[in-house]
Amino acid sequence: MPFGLPGLGVNSLVLMKHEATYGTAATSAAEYASEIVSAEITPRLSTIVDPSLSNTQRSSRFIGQGGQYYEWSVKVRAGYNGMLPWIRMMFPCYASTVNEATARTHTFKEIAPAGTIGMPAAGYGQVQWGWTIDILWGNVSLAGTGKPTRLIGALATGLRFTAQAGTGENAMLMCEISGVCKSVTPALPSGALTSVSLPAALGVLYHQQLRATAGQFGIGTGTAQDEIQMKSMEVNITQPFDLQRFLFGQVNAESPVPNGIMDCTFNMELEYKNETEFVSMLAGGGATIKYLFQNPVIIAGATTLKPEFEIHALVPTAAEYSTAVPGYGVITQRLSHKAAWSTTDSSAVVVRVQNVETAMPF
To answer: Domain boundaries in the chain?
Structure first.
């Protein structure tokens, strides 16, 4: 008698579409399909325990279902292609401009200017787009039926980029997106988003960082680019949401809303060559942090432009610093900066992608 295989990650896939009305599931064809490195859905369940006393037993006589809400996370390989929806989930402000032939620049910021289509006037706490996300959960979802698990009203609460110099998957720029959603529907029986083509695989590699040209990477110290020998980097952006909006008459929490200030932290590890960075950190940090990666191939349809991926902050402030002597080997230093609002950028952090993908439809 044949035996069934356990759930395997093979064949996992994410289909995405923005919601015209928050909390109302999108239908028909997905706008984006995305490969995933890993994914997790975590329903936050609770119980209501009866505190009544009785001389007939030591345990509670009644336990009821309590309020619940949902968290999720997805890790993807950051690429010059396919990243637009993940970044858009975190940043309400999006603009697209044509540079040359079919080459296009996509720019993401935290606040949309007044009059931007689909957004209210500029101001903290404005509504972000909700997403319907169908996760094809490995061979369990695909076997026989193709039924996905659906997240409705999905919002991003965190966006994290990491990379380190060397070998293996961590030598690629990785992106981890964490979020919440209004509801989860396991094994969606019908109405699933229909698949669309995956974007071309064009990962961002650590050695594609531009560092020879002034201004491509720096922390405001005036140090020559080749003197800054970075070993690893992390950009961590978080947006707190109120997740426990429990109301009478419903077990699921009401739609999450922003509930705190966006935090933008830049961490990096450098080889220790002199005291330049140490002195800079004691003085408050630097004037600019910019990570700019460029693929060597020419964008199709253009003559000079190349795929680019950029993350920058114009107003960083030193937050933490440490120097470690690991023994006989190379001495390293770890730097951490917090990014504040920039009037020039109208954002604490700006993410820019240059490729040939069409403008996002919202």
So the answer is: 13-50+62-355
